[in-house]
Design a protein that fits this description.
The protein is an alpha+beta fold. The protein has two domains: 38 residues, no CATH class; 154 residues, Chorismate lyase, CATH 3.40.1410. Helix content is 20%, strand content 34%. The chain has five helices and ten strands, in the order ααβββαβββαβαβββ. The strands form three sheets. A six-stranded antiparallel sheet has the order 4-5-6-9-8-7. The chain has a two-stranded antiparallel ribbon with strand order 1-2. The protein has a two-stranded parallel sheet with strand order 3-10. The chain is globular and about 60 Å long. It starts with 7 loop residues before the first helix and ends in an 11-residue tail after the last strand.
């Protein structure tokens, strides 16, 4: 462990692979925690066998879609809620309205511990999505687009660190107060209309976000 792997080009040439295939393979290894990709240094070997848990590695909306296809959603409860109290912070401008809420767990497709506990809030005009929300590989915003013709034009994501709530910990198979990530995703339509919101709690080591910044300099 700690060895430096050859570059993507060297690996692709040595094994007769395309650059795309090589890049995807390295990304999977990174998601499994087997390697670490460090700009300016290279790719380091971290472990020779993967850990037993699944880690969602998200870099962009394409990764989010891919992540969904590798997982399954289990709906724990479906109910109508009035937007008041703490819910206003997630659904600004919807105070007093009744929205459809799904309480769910997302699991790896091949089984194992839940990746996340997720509450999904859907605008009442889109309630028909309840008919298909349990379908494999399904995302709520895709259902909204397919069934209602309302195009999602923007996704906003906010990530913060929290202690796992006591009522959620047993569902995730973790301890109350254990480190977790709170991931809020807000789906907006035309003229910033609020379509759907998901509130996700990811236990430690089950979710990773990768951000890449490309620097532009005047002397380039």
């Amino acid at each position: 462990m700690g060895d430096l792997l050859p570059s993507e080009l060297e690996i692709a040439t040595r094994y007769g692979l395309s650059r795309h295939t090589t890049r995807e393979a390295l990304r999977c290894l990174d998601g499994l925690g087997l390697i670490s990709r460090r700009p300016g240094i290279g790719t380091l070997v971290k472990a020779r066998s993967s850990q037993s848990h699944y880690t969602a590695a998200i870099a962009d909306l394409g990764d989010l879609t891919h992540h969904t296809k590798q997982t399954r959603l289990k709906v724990l409860a479906e109910e109508w809620v009035t937007v008041e109290g703490d819910l206003i912070q997630y659904l600004p401008g919807a105070q007093g309205q009744r929205w459809l809420r799904f309480r769910t767990l997302r699991y790896p497709a091949k089984g194992g511990k839940p990746i996340s506990y997720t509450e999904i809030y859907v605008h009442p005009v889109f309630e028909r999505i309840r008919e298909r929300i349990n379908e494999p590989d399904m995302m709520v915003y895709r259902l909204i687009e397919e069934q209602h013709g309302e195009r999602v034009r923007e996704l906003r994501q906010e990530i913060s660190a929290i202690a796992t709530p006591a009522d959620i910990a047993p569902l995730l198979g973790t301890e109350p107060g254990a480190p977790a990530l709170h991931v809020l995703r807000v789906y907006l339509g035309k003229k910033d209309a609020l379509l759907s919101v998901s509130v996700n709690i990811y236990p430690e080591n089950r979710f990773k976000v990768t951000t890449r910044w490309q620097m532009t300099r005047n002397d380039d």
